[in-house]
Automatic annotation (TrEMBL):
Residue ranges annotated for the TFIIS-type domain, each copy included: 50-90
Residues at which Zn(2+) 1 binds: C6, C9
Keyword annotations of the record: Metal-binding, Zinc, Zinc-finger
Entry protein name: TFIIS-type domain-containing protein
Amino acid sequence: MALLFCPTCGNMLELEEGGRQSEFFMSQKTKKIEPVLGGEAEWRSAPRTEHTRCSECGHNVAFYQQVQNRSADEPATTYFRCTRCAKVWQEA
């Protein structure tokens, strides 16, 4: 049986069988989502670079953080956050 997920919130749906009908429901077990890149304070203390350009406002100064999203033998992903408009993007 395949796992099904809510298209709106992404929570896993559980199957409840009852008599002649079966229906899916979302259990009340939810967990708090932690920000992967930290909160506002962590971005403010992140290093800055002038070697990028924001596609939203054109500003060339951004904070950046590197995160090891994939396996250890793959390079880290660099995320940028514009110091002017706060748009977040990752290195292409």
